[in-house]
Amino acid sequence: MAEHMAIDNAPPAANPGPHYDFQDAQAGDLGALAAIADAMKSDNLTDRLESLKRLGVLALAMGEERTRDELIPFLDESIDDEDELLLALAELLGDFVQYVGGPKYAFVLLRPLENLATAEETVVRDKAVESINKLVEVMDQLHVEEYLIPCIARLSSGEWFTSRSSAAGLYAAAYGKVTDAIQSKLRAGYDALCKDDTPMIRRAAASNLVGLVEKIEKGHVLTFGVPNLRQLAGDDQDSVRLLTVEPLVAITKRLTMSECRQHLGEIVQRLCVDKSWRVRYMVADHFVALATNVKDRDMQEELLNVAISLMHDSEAE
Predict the structure, then answer these.
(1) How many CB atoms lie within 10 A of CB 34?
(2) Which of 263, 204, 202, 279 is nearest to 230 (CA)?
(3) Dihedral pair phi/psi, residue 81, rounded to 5°
(4) What separation in angstroms does the CA of 35 have from each of 13, 27, 29, 52, 55?
């Protein structure tokens, strides 16, 4: 990914800033602020979770500038190792735009969320990705290109599978907010994820391909979407192949009858008779949508035969 998305030493998502001492906070209710600060330093997980719920109060007391320059870096530097706390923080930061000064400062929340997107626990990573995508909705093109694209590049080239799997969930949100040149780099980066040596990364690429297929131009559906679908549908891991059924359905919506017959016929046939019952189950589960989108009569006849065979499948599921 790094070689596909060479970004000129872009600045980090947020200035690390000074380590913040909560005792310096100025507010009308210093007692409440002191209680939040003490709870954040507590050895008790429940107390720390409760303090996170009240971070909005602390942010309002500090003001937008100090929240950006001090509170957010503090949270980033002191990220906890408790999964429950990390999950709560990942969710909180996605709704913290109002406290940092609105959409024009949303980018300062990217750095802690990027770190959370590399967490070991899957639910934490997924929530961090979800929150980043919420930020992208309110960010303008300039900030997406200056801060989010380097973030995606770093995650996509990360040494551990956790960062690369999270990166796959960010491409679709970024794609519609950048120039054609950067879109080309994003497609190249996603190609690399689809061909990654680690099955977990290919699973992430397969499950997030739907979002990209819905965003890319029609021409790129044929030159980018179909080749990657074919690559993933032929994967040696059935956990990857079963995740290609939804992208297949999404691609059939974008292609004409003749294009479906020419480019998808073999893929459909292969998935329908896959040796793994889990893949055949996914085909059966999405069969109506697939049959509805495929307008070619010959392919519909083949799908009818497939439907009959699935009803007689040896696997009860």
Answers:
(1) 14
(2) 263
(3) -100, 5
(4) 30, 13, 10, 12, 11
At 230-250, the pLDDT tens digits run 999 999 999 999 999 999 999
**CA dist., res. 3 & res. 244, Å (int):** 26
The amino acid at 58:
L
pLDDT tens, 149-179? 999 999 999 888 999 999 999 999 999 999 9
What pLDDT digit, counting tens, does each position of 106-157 carry?
999 999 999 999 999 999 999 999 999 999 999 999 999 999 999 999 999 9
Largest interatomic CA distance in the chain: 74
- For the entire predicted model, the pTM comes to 0.81
Q: Are 232 and 213 in contact (CB under 8 A)?
A: no
- Distance, in Å, from the CA atom of 312 to the CA atom of 60, rounded to the nearest integer, reads 63
Q: Looking at residue 68, what DSSP letter applies?
A: I
Half-sphere exposure of 78 (CA within 13 A, CB side): 16
Q: Divide the 317 residues of the chain into consecutive groups of 10 and give the mean pLDDT of each group.
A: 46 41 44 61 74 82 87 78 86 93 95 94 96 96 96 94 95 95 96 95 96 94 95 95 94 88 86 88 85 73 73 73
At residue 18, the 3 state secondary structure works out as coil
State the DSSP code for 144. Answer: I
- Measured CA to CA, the distance from residue 131 to residue 114 in angstroms comes to 10
- The helix (H) or strand (E) run that includes residue 286 is none
Give the Å distances, CA to CA, from 147 to 12, 61, 97, 265, 279.
7, 27, 15, 41, 38
Alpha carbon of 315 to those of 236, 246, 272, 285, 310: distances in Å? 21, 21, 14, 14, 9
| Measured distance CA(165)–CA(201) in Å, rounded | 5
